[in-house]
Amino acid sequence: MREKIIAANWKMNHLAEDLKKFFTELLAGYKAREEVSVVIAPASPYLARAAEMADGAERVFIAAQNMYCEKSGAFTGEISPSMVKDCGCRYVILGHSERRHIFGETDELIARKVKIALNYRLNPILCIGELLEEREDGKTEEVVSSQLNAVLPQLSPEEMLSVVVAYEPVWAIGTGRTATVEQAEEVHHLVRGIIGGAFGDEVAQRVTIQYGGSVKPENIDQLMAAPDIDGALVGGASLAAESFLRLINFKQ
What we know:
The structure is a single chain. Helix content is about 40%, strand content about 15%. By secondary structure, the protein is α/β, with parallel strands linked by helices. The protein has a single domain, classed as Aldolase class I (TIM Barrel), CATH 3.20.20. The longest helix is centred in the C-terminal third of the chain and has 19 residues. Its EC number is 5.3.1.1.
């Protein structure tokens, strides 16, 4: 059985007092589930504090929202993979659409980040997904394939097993619009096929592929029932412990 991962991407939200309140409420209601991991990605100033709060909670891990692809140096404002690791993180989100489309990160840069994250024994959550106009032009497969194939040739089969892929249609992120289960499953199946073409079906069947894009308590059960959807990368609905707990406790 593939690992299911429910991940919270807080983006540029929550201060220290919010962090404390969230973890207090989360851990009061949290019960670990077999084969389900929980990942929380606060803003970088709070990574170490979040790791301390999650310490001892079964199958609860911390992720950075981004990192640079050098171990140190004159890169003002960036954080290195060694810093991410030193803060107690196991995961790092890479290639999020906001990094691609607001900050101009290229497929090449994201591929370099994925590779160095693996070198530091961090598990990358590699985000891929198309814009609305790309979907309307019938280019979803082209875009998703291109984003994946910028990364896959850099990896060994063993490294691929340490990567989580998150399909996030850009048109559904923070818009209230959600891909239908059928639309999401279609792309997830495509992604698994691309991975299978690169590394074989045995590897592809073991890779966790998350869905992201206006995931909320009202649709989590239907999404998680799809054969190739192995979790969720969640924005707004992850900011409150109550709604995030409902996502963790999806029905299966």
